[in-house]
Write a structure and sequence with these properties.
188 residues; mainly alpha; two-stranded antiparallel sheet; 68% helix
Length: 188
């Protein structure tokens, strides 16, 4: 298990270096590598990655640095799950064991809601919210999703609520249910 944790930490470090140096090409390469290695172990590893969103059909640039931040968070979470015994890397038959606890259900509900909200926002008509505003809102919700402590999360929620208030009721009805669940559940 110790070698597995060390292996994951190496990728976390590589992702952080790409983020710190703002090296989008390195982040792109690492994204492919991390997904190839951990796809069978980390459920929905591609979820919320800008590279896999529909926003780029029009040819706009992919935010590989933002994706690197999300992948880093997923690897940190996976590492913590392994260390806490929430899941095991492999059993004797070579399969993956996952042990879920009651608190995991709340996180699964928030994750599902988060992905549904992002999908709903992307499907909103452009006359309600522009594609650029959709990306901004998805980024703000991702920031809430990635926040670990209550103080940081609440600051991000306040900023997002102010932004939503300026955009109108359609945007609010799409995003507010997730924000409430994220606050109730303590974030994902």
């Amino acid at each position: 298990m110790e070698n597995k944790i060390k292996f994951i930490e190496e990728y976390i470090t590589k992702l952080q270096k790409a983020i710190d140096s703002k090296d989008s090409k390195a982040a792109d390469r690492l994204q492919d590598e991390v997904i190839a290695i951990f796809d069978s172990e980390i459920e929905n590893i591609r979820g919320l990655l800008d590279n896999y969103s529909y926003a780029h059909i029009n040819g706009s640039a992919v935010d590989f640095l933002g994706d690197a931040e999300i992948l880093k968070g997923k690897l940190v979470n996976y590492k913590l799950n392994l260390q806490s015994g929430l899941c095991f890397s492999q059993n004797n038959q070579g399969g993956v064991n996952v042990t879920q606890q009651v608190t995991q259900q709340v996180q699964n509900d928030i994750r599902l809601s988060f992905e549904q909200i992002i999908s709903q926002i992307q499907e909103m008509p452009s006359d309600n919210i522009s594609d650029e505003e959709k990306d901004i809102l998805c980024g703000k919700l991702t920031a809430i999703e990635m926040s670990k402590d209550k103080k940081s999360r609440w600051a991000k929620v306040q900023d997002t609520l102010k932004w939503i208030a300026e955009k109108g009721i359609e945007v609010g009805t799409a995003a507010l249910p997730y924000i409430v669940k994220a606050l109730e559940g303590g974030g994902a």
